[in-house]
Design brief:
The protein is of the alpha+beta class. It has three domains: 254 residues; 79 residues, no CATH class; 95 residues. Helix content is 43%, strand content 22%. The chain is built from nine helices and 19 strands. It has a five-stranded antiparallel β-sheet with strand order 1-15-3-11-12, with no helix packed on it. A hairpin with a 6-residue loop joins strand 5 and strand 6. The chain is flat. It starts with 14 loop residues before the first helix and ends with a helix.
């Protein structure tokens, strides 16, 4: 049962205010815990913000630490009708050819016409044969009661035929049966026997002709069932859209600007991590940074700068390919200088960033990207990272403080009940004394005077 009183009716004391003030005095330790909890949560949040920045840096550095990150190429074509795309592993090369033909899909349409697609079409069995008609590919059994829609459905259901059929409207109120190969190319070509059909399209391959037949040279052709050619040049895919009698040249060349752009992205990630660290560990006079002067954090910044600027094995300083440190503790990157180095000394530029040898084996040298990755991962790894551990430590501390604050809530509630009972008991005792005093005064006043 909860008891509360305000002003004592007997004593005249404002007991409600007195109890509140006494509880406030006893709650000072709880208030100190609440302030400490807030600081702890802010610290944990700061660690995690820095950790997120370093985790992003780890991902960026990891992708650039692989040798294939320097395999960027760009492809060009001298004809707009011939497109070319490249995979990351494409190798430089060039090919000149003419486009003798593009791929088409075989198709036939019935010579008969029907006024409805849902009434009996009266068609006999359809014999599907090879394009030259010399061999059968299969027969679609019909008894004449099927509608055009049902005939089309039977053809489509026989997947071994490799055909697609549908009833098409050729004029108002007139329908025909259209049969097409499921795929383009000569091998998918077909002809129809048993029922009158007209060929509307011959299936043919796309054909590239390379070279010319002369007294000293011989041409050759490259065929594809589709208009796409893969593997003609390693890692390149060609797509043709129309015949070209004039020679078309497709070129796959190294793209140093694209590589430089990747490296620039890594430098941006390094600078973002450095900026985040500086913001949360600022130790200048008057700073209110959550991790002001925290060595575990500031040391990571120093390690990152060292990873970017330190010589790579016997190849020397990264400055020779465009990396520089500034006085304010950031990294600058000259993309043009790096791209020029890729053209002039590509092996050197790659070793500076990627390193050489097999990591972990004798003689291996870590490149700039791998060193940055190792620093950021050592701090941000979710299980072993130093900053991850510090953030988890703050979380554990916060939970302990929250438990202690909750204990204080119970303690103060019990204290309020006890104080309320004490003051109630005091008022009750005073009331009893007052009653006794009044009774004695009454008795004395009733005594006869001398």
């Amino acid at each position: 049962m909860t008891m509360s009183i305000n002003t004592g009716l007997v004593s005249g004391i404002d007991t409600g205010t007195m109890i509140t003030q006494l509880l406030q005095l006893e709650a000072r330790q709880q208030n100190a815990l609440k302030a400490r909890l807030s600081d702890t949560q802010v610290t944990a949040s700061a660690y995690r913000t820095i950790n997120s920045s370093l985790a992003a840096l780890t991902t960026s550095a990891e992708s650039l630490a692989r040798p294939d990150s320097f395999a960027s190429t760009k492809a060009t074509s001298t004809a707009t009708s011939v497109g070319v795309t490249t995979a990351s592993w494409a190798t430089p090369g060039s090919l000149t050819f003419t486009v003798a033909s593009v791929a088409t899909t075989a198709s036939s349409v019935s010579t008969g016409r029907w006024s409805s697609t849902t009434t009996a079409a009266g068609m006999g069995s359809i014999d599907i044969r090879t394009a030259d008609g010399t061999a059968s590919k299969g027969t679609v059994a019909l008894d004449g009661t099927e509608s055009l829609e049902q005939v089309a459905a039977k053809i489509n259901a026989d997947t071994a035929l490799g055909l697609k059929a549908s009833a098409v409207q050729v004029s108002p109120g007139q329908y025909a049966l259209q049969i097409s190969a499921a795929t383009s190319g000569a091998a998918a070509g077909f002809s129809v026997g048993g029922t009158a059909f007209t060929t509307t399209s011959l299936g043919q391959d796309a054909v590239l002709k390379v070279g010319e037949d002369t007294a000293t040279t011989t041409s050759y052709t490259i065929r594809s069932a589709t208009n796409t050619f893969e593997g003609v040049l390693p890692g390149a895919t060609l797509t043709v859209s129309k015949p070209e009698t004039s020679p078309v040249t497709v070129t796959v060349a190294a793209d140093p600007e694209a590589v430089a752009d990747k490296v620039s992205g890594l430098v941006d990630a390094v600078n973002k991590a450095l900026s985040t660290i500086k913001t949360y560990s600022d130790n200048t006079p008057g700073s209110k940074a959550a991790l002001r002067g925290e060595y575990a954090v500031t040391s990571v910044a120093g390690q990152l700068l060292q990873a970017v600027s330190e010589a790579v094995g016997t190849d020397g300083s990264p400055a020779q390919v465009g990396f520089e440190l500034t006085r304010d503790g950031t990294v600058t990157f000259d993309e043009e200088k790096f791209a020029a180095a890729l053209r002039a000394t590509p092996d050197l530029a790659q070793r500076i960033v990627v390193g050489s040898g097999v990591p972990g084996e004798p003689g291996a040298v870590l490149g700039l990207a791998a060193r940055v990755r190792d620093v950021s991962k050592a701090a941000s790894d979710t299980t072993t990272g130093s900053l991850s551990s510090l953030a988890k430590g703050q979380d554990n501390l916060a939970r302990d403080i929250q438990d202690r604050i909750a204990d204080w809530d119970l303690r103060l509630a019990a204290r309020k009940v006890a104080l309320t009972r004490q003051f109630t008991a005091m008022e009750t005792a005073l009331s009893g004394l007052t009653n006794q005093s009044n009774w004695l005064a009454g008795q004395l006043s009733s005594l006869p005077s001398a």
